Amino acid sequence: MKTGFIGLGAMGVGMARNLASKGLLAGVWNRSAARAAQIAAETGTPAATDPAALAASADAVVICVSADADVLAVVDALLPSARPGLIVIDCSTVSAATAREAAARLAGRGASFLDCPVSGGVEGARDGTLAVMCGGDPATFERARPILEAMGRTVTHMGPTGYGQSTKATNQIMCAGVIQAVSEAMAFARAEGLPLEKVIETLGKGAGSSWYFVNRAPFMARGSFPAGFRVRLHDKDLGICHDMAAAHGVELPVVEVTRAHYRALIEAGHGDEDISTIVRLKDALFDAGGA
C-alpha cells in the first residue's frame, strides 16, 4: 500500500524510515518543511505541499503528532482528499474521544480511521520494534496490517475506535509508576555509594527490572537526559489519563503525583529532557536529608 506519513518528530522519523525500508513510503509532510525535505531526500520519496496533496496520492496516511488539537487539524486538512478506501492511521497519543471524533469526520467522506498509538520509545521507532495498539474496524485493521508491522513488532487489534487510545493511556499510567520507582531506586543507590553501572548490569537481570530500568537508568547514572520521551509530552499524556479517570469519578494517585513532579521539572527548565530527569527530584530528597 502506498503510504504517506505526517509528523516527522523524534518518533515519526524512525517510523517513516522503516516504512521506506519496506517499500511502503509514498511521501511525507511535516509542519516544518525543512524536516520533510530532509527525510524526503533521504528516502527518495516526495515531500508533499500539504496533507491533502499527500492523501491524494496514497492508499493510507499515518499521522504521528503531539496533541489532540494537532490530530484533528491534520484530519481536517486531509478531508479534501478523503475518499472511500483511504485509511488514516493515527499513531499519536490522544484521548479516546478525539479518536472517535477523527473517525467520525473521515467517515463523512467515506474514509476509514484507525487509532494506533505506539509504545517503545525512540529506540523502538528506529528499530521497528514498537508495540502498536489499535482501535477500529477489524477489516480495516487487517488491510493496514502490513503498514503497522513495518513499524512495530507487536501489533494488536484492541477493539472499536478509541480502544487503542484507552490502551495507550493504560500504558502511560504504568510508565509513570515505573519511572517513579526506577528514579527512587537509582537515587537510593547513589546515596548508598553503590557502583551505579554494576547496579544496572546486575539488577537489569533481576525481578525488579523493566524496559525503563534497562534503557533509562544509564541516563540517571550519567546525569544526562537526552530527549527521548520528553517530560512535556508525558505530562500531556497523563493529563489525558487524568481526564479519562475523572469520567469514572476516580483520581489516580500515581498520575497526580507524577504530574506534580513534571510541573516542577518544567518550571525548572527540564521539560524537554527525557522523563528519566525525574531522578533530579529524588536525588534532591537525599541531598536535603543529608544537609
Keywords:
291 residues, alpha/beta, Rossmann fold, N-(1-d-carboxylethyl)-l-norvaline Dehydrogenase, domain 2, 2 domains, five-stranded parallel beta sheet, three-stranded mixed beta sheet, 13 helices, 8 strands, 13% strand, globular
Report on this structure:
This protein has 291 residues and is an alpha/beta fold. The protein folds into 2 domains: 3-161, NAD(P)-binding Rossmann-like Domain (Rossmann fold), CATH 3.40.50.720; 166-289, Orthogonal Bundle (N-(1-d-carboxylethyl)-l-norvaline Dehydrogenase, domain 2). The chain has 13 helices and 8 strands. It has a 5-stranded parallel sheet, sandwiched between helices. Helix 8 packs across helix 10 (211-222).
Going by CATH, the architecture of the largest domain would be 3-Layer(aba) Sandwich
Q: What percent strand?
A: 5-15%
Order of helices and strands: EHEHHEHEHEEHEHEHHHHHH
Structural class: alpha/beta
Write the layout of secondary structure elements.
Elements: E1 3-6, H1 12-21, E2 25-29, H2 33-43, H3 51-56, E3 60-63, H4 68-78, E4 87-90, H5 96-107, E5 112-115, E6 118-119, H6 121-127, E7 130-135, H7 138-151, E8 152-159, H8 163-191, H9 196-203, H10 211-222, H11 231-246, H12 253-267, H13 279-289
Parallel strand pairs: 1-2, 1-3, 3-4, 4-5, 7-8
Antiparallel strand pairs: 6-7
Helix pairs in contact: 1-6, 4-5, 8-10, 8-11, 8-13, 9-10, 11-12
